[in-house]
Amino acid sequence: MQHPSDSVEIDEPEENGQLAPVADDTAEPSTVLAEVLPGIAVVFGEVPAEFKLEMIDFGLVPASDRGQISTFLATIGNTATVLGNAGKAMAGAQGLYRLGAASQAWLGAGGALAVKDGANLGAVFHNGKIVHQARFIPVSAINPAELLATLGPAISMIAIQMQLSEVTGLARTNIALTNQVLTDIRHEQWAELEGLVGSIDRAITRAREIEAVAPSLWDGIAATEPDLRKQRNLYRMNVSNHVRQIRHDEPGRRAYLETNAEAILFDAHALLSSLKAWTGYQALHAARARGAGAENPDEARLVDVIARDTREALEPALADTTALVDALTRELRIIVELPGRATLPLSSRRKDSAAVRRTATQLLEAIQPLADALHPPAPELEAPGAVCAPESLDLAPYLRILRWYLDDGESLRAVGFADEPDSPDAISSVLSGARGLFAAAMDKPTTRTLVVVTDRRIIIGRTDTFLEQAEIRQEFPVEVVRYVRVTTGQDKNSRSAIDLITRDENIRWQFPSDVDNTRVDTLAAVLAESMTIPDTEREELRRRNHALAVAGAERAITETAD
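Above: the chain sequence. Below: its structure as tokens.
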């Protein structure tokens, strides 16, 4: 039994497919999850209805492989200890199960499940609720080397099936793209790709029905491999070009995304569809080789090669697609949210702001399911503990934009609003009594300097262009902060200021007189947490100081000699 002090706390699950310690270990689980690859388990025994929603069927994994896996797991040396009374559950494999990212991270960080009768006990979550308890056998307990030596081709078939399931789910998520937005472009290209996808889909359906890849079935698709590779490479290059453009042309990224939004959507969707068809072809090829492997060892080894090549092709392609969809989705969300963003053309055919906003909304509705599947959206931002602003300022519009600026895991620490150097408040603080000269200007919305501090960087912008166009003026990592100083106003009409000295420049922010000094001090305190002078810079200062001292001494000797 796990001692309470050995437990690792875990947050409330936010995803399905998550394992966590059970709160009650008195129940006797009737389900076994045997992890055969990192993050991928075979399910044995009783499968509750809610659990079935999280399972993936075996697809093209042959029935003989399923039986072989069951036999192997039931005969490993420590089965009696690991399985306890659930040993009979190993009689038949029910399906595949992907552990959620949270579970993998938690277990990988040393999280321990409860132990009963030598078995790991875990609670399975669905929609944030515990729906079942299961015995969990990690891959480390099975002995991965022995597992692969005995069941290498069978495990490779499972890996290919999981790859096919993943890319099929993504392509299905994004199927609305073509119907909603892209019906008037690239008809011929799409028709060619759709024909190939349909051929592979039909072959997979028939192979699953007969649980084999019959020779005549394989003959019908074998010749499509060059065309499938051509389609995959074409759209991979298109997506890679889009990614390269937005990564290496920072000033023009926004204009590029807006101008090429429809082409980007098409290429992203076409790449997923081509990957789905190509992966389906590889799965059929592997299943055919697996069937012949009983009599030909070379065919059995070919299954491992196909699984490896499929993984190596899929991973970078999906990474590029994720990066591209992330960037486009962020810009579309900003366009839809901010009226000012609609002044820029989304494409050469759409110049007026109303049409741009409608198109952006339509594109976002089409791509958002895919974007969420590839990369779950960031939660809404809450106001940080340090807000240096007048009481009347509404922070919500700024938080809605900042939500899409922050990277994964980046936390918002502080937000401040300083006067612009040429603002009426700043000038009037120098020209005492001249405030009336600026009455007309003060009737307009006040533009201030926006200061955002996260745990990674400092972002600076103008409030007007940030709210209208989501533009920032400057950003730099917190590591370059060298010194922070506060000048506090002594009366109600004077203003406080923060001087920030970085590695490369000195910045001064003066705050409106109606901002409480405590708020300024709080913002300065957050900034001051990043103050540091790297040893290299400190040593350079010492060398410079020493050189100046030597030069001064030599000059003094020369003057004395003269």
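Residues 4-142 form one domain.
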